[in-house]
């Protein structure tokens, strides 16, 4: 059961997506517009395709597209096959979503109480701060996964030179060593075809509430950037298990652009 909101802090009645644009952050609340943007995040679409996807009249979809374009969230270009038609695409980045259905009711005091001063772990306080802020946002139904994922990608780009190795097995070992040295968790290579990494004691989610959904958007972003640089082409780090899903570890499957998989070979 979701608790009542506090005085002066009205509870949202519907989901809201937040997009970053050159003109600032834009909140998109209308469900039709959110569905249009969800489709455009997958790929570009023609006006006719969006009408079918939205299930609304052409005039209604046209108004939504005009408003989204005016807000700087989407753009369009002429269809190369028919200049009278347009192809629409997303120009803004999804930053976060606000959903009353995603609220959690865990007590923040439980997270603050988990910190032990003088434990000898210099990173304990920073992990505490990270997860406390994360849970505080989750209590309000604020989901920052898109933003955390992009932040992770930036960290991964900076981290890559420290773990780089042309041999995939050695590269995986370097990543595992970095994670353990910085107390981010313990990484194991579980499978090689496809390449699967397991993370135990994950700093990002080990103490988060169980929601039934993956929570390691930050780690996913880091791993995506690392393996994209390693393979020299876009890679994905798809999380299929997580502490927040009730497992005792996180599981990432590494996929390479074009639908292929890569093998992690141990150096001889």
From TrEMBL:
Top-level taxon: Archaea
Q: Which Pfam families match?
A: HTH_5, V4R
Q: Where is the HTH arsR-type domain?
A: 23-113
Q: Which InterPro entries does the record match to this protein?
A: ArsR-like_HTH, HTH_ArsR_DNA-bd_dom, NO_sig/Golgi_transp_ligand-bd, V4R, WH-like_DNA-bd_sf, WH_DNA-bd_sf
| All residue ranges annotated as the 4-vinyl reductase 4VR domain in the record | 194-256
Q: Where is this region: Disordered?
A: 1-24
UniProt xrefs under PANTHER family: ARSR FAMILY TRANSCRIPTIONAL REGULATOR (PTHR35090:SF2), DNA-DIRECTED RNA POLYMERASE SUBUNIT I (PTHR35090)
Q: What is this protein called?
A: ArsR family transcriptional regulator
């Amino acid at each position: 059961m979701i608790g009542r909101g506090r005085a002066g802090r009205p509870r949202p009645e519907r989901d809201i997506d937040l997009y970053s644009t050159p003109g600032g952050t834009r909140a998109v609340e209308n469900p039709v517009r959110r569905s249009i943007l969800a489709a455009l995040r997958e790929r570009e679409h023609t006006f006719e395709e969006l009408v079918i996807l939205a299930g609304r009249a052409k005039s209604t979809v046209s108004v939504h597209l005009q408003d989204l374009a005016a807000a700087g969230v989407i753009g369009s270009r002429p269809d190369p096959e028919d200049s009278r038609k347009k192809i629409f695409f997303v120009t803004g980045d999804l930053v976060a979503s606000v959903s009353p259905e995603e609220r959690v009711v865990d007590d923040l005091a439980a997270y603050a109480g988990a910190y032990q001063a003088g434990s000898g772990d210099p990173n304990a306080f920073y992990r505490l701060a990270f997860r406390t802020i994360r849970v505080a946002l989750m209590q309000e139904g604020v989901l920052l996964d898109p933003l955390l994922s992009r932040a992770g990608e930036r960290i991964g780009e900076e981290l890559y030179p420290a773990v780089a190795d042309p041999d995939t097995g050695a590269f995986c070992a370097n990543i595992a060593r970095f994670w353990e040295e910085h107390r981010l968790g313990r990484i194991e290579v579980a499978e090689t075809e496809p390449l699967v990494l397991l993370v135990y004691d994950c700093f990002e989610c080990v103490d988060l509430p169980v929601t039934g959904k993956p929570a390691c958007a930050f780690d996913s972003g880091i791993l995506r950037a690392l393996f994209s640089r390693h393979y020299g082409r876009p890679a994905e780090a798809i999380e299929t298990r997580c502490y927040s899903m009730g497992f005792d570890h996180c599981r990432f499957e590494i996929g390479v652009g074009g639908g292929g998989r890569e093998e992690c070979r141990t150096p001889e």
